């Protein structure tokens, strides 16, 4: 229930920021959608047109990411926008399940900053915090009419090392996700996932 409320809260923030965006730019967006409509229409988008993603749009997505909740409000994230074609292609070459990046104009890399992570047993909350930021970015992309897909990096050591090397990340920074972003070609549709067998009321 708590995570449901968290996602709803994030989506409300996203919907508000998309309304702001629609006032300030001429980009296509879905700002007439309610928060719940954005949640249910989000899907992984791996096919893009030749259209660009603006710096303003990337900033909107990064701001949505950093609006995420985090344990003790530690905000242990760093987000890198990548638009450099050579770097995008290097990521695509290194990462086995990220080939859609060759078609895309941009990516956002959500990283955990271990100098900001909690100490002791709470340290690994950075993974959940950065996952919440990643989901916020996916919802924001849907809200402003972009297509995006989460590519998992941490905890696969080889992928972490490859992303660190390609983006020259410091060793206290761990990349959690590469979110590939572009103008959607319109191929993908949301999957229906609701399963009443996985919903429990008071008893298992
Ligand atoms: C932790 C995580 C890692 C993922 N890694 C990849 C990936 O490396 N490549 C990819 O194409 N999709 C990746 N995905 C996207 C999933 O394949 C996708 O979310 C799933 O198939 C459900 O489809 P939907 O996003 O359209 O609802 C990842 C998703 C998550 C949550």
Please write out the topology.
Blueprint (H helix, E strand, L loop, with lengths): L1 H23 L10 H7 L13 H12 L10 E6 L2 H10 L11 E8 L11 H19 L3 E6 L4 H11 L5 E10 L22
Antiparallel strand pairs: 1-2, 2-4, 3-4
The protein binds flavin mononucleotide (FMN).
Structural description of this entry:
With 204 residues, the protein is of the alpha+beta class. It has a single domain, classed as 3-Layer(aba) Sandwich (NADH Oxidase). The protein contains six helices and four strands; from the N terminus they run H-H-H-E-H-E-H-E-H-E. The chain has a four-stranded antiparallel sheet with strand order 1-2-4-3, with helices on both faces. Helix 4 runs antiparallel to helix 6. The longest helix is centred in the N-terminal third of the chain and has 23 residues. It is globular. The N terminus is likely disordered. It binds flavin mononucleotide. The site of flavin mononucleotide has 10 residues, from strand 3. Flavin mononucleotide binds next to strand 3.
In short:
This protein has a single domain (2-185), classed as 3-Layer(aba) Sandwich (NADH Oxidase), CATH 3.40.109.10. The protein has six helices and four strands.
Q: How are the strands ordered across the major sheet?
A: 1-2-4-3
Distance between the termini: 15 Å
- Given as residue ranges, the uncertain stretches (5+ residues, pLDDT < 50) are 1-27
**Domains (count):** 1
Strand content: 5-15%
Ligand types: flavin mononucleotide
The CATH topology is what? Answer: NADH Oxidase
Gyration radius from CA atoms, angstroms: 17 Å
SSE succession: HHHEHEHEHE
Known CATH architecture: 3-Layer(aba) Sandwich
Helix content: 40-55%
| CATH C-level name | Alpha Beta
Could you say which overall geometry the principal axes of the C-alpha atoms support?
A: globular
Largest sheet, strands/sense/barrel: 4 strands, antiparallel
Structural class computed from helices and strand pairing: alpha+beta
The whole-number mean of residue pLDDT values reads 90
Alpha plus pi helix count: 6
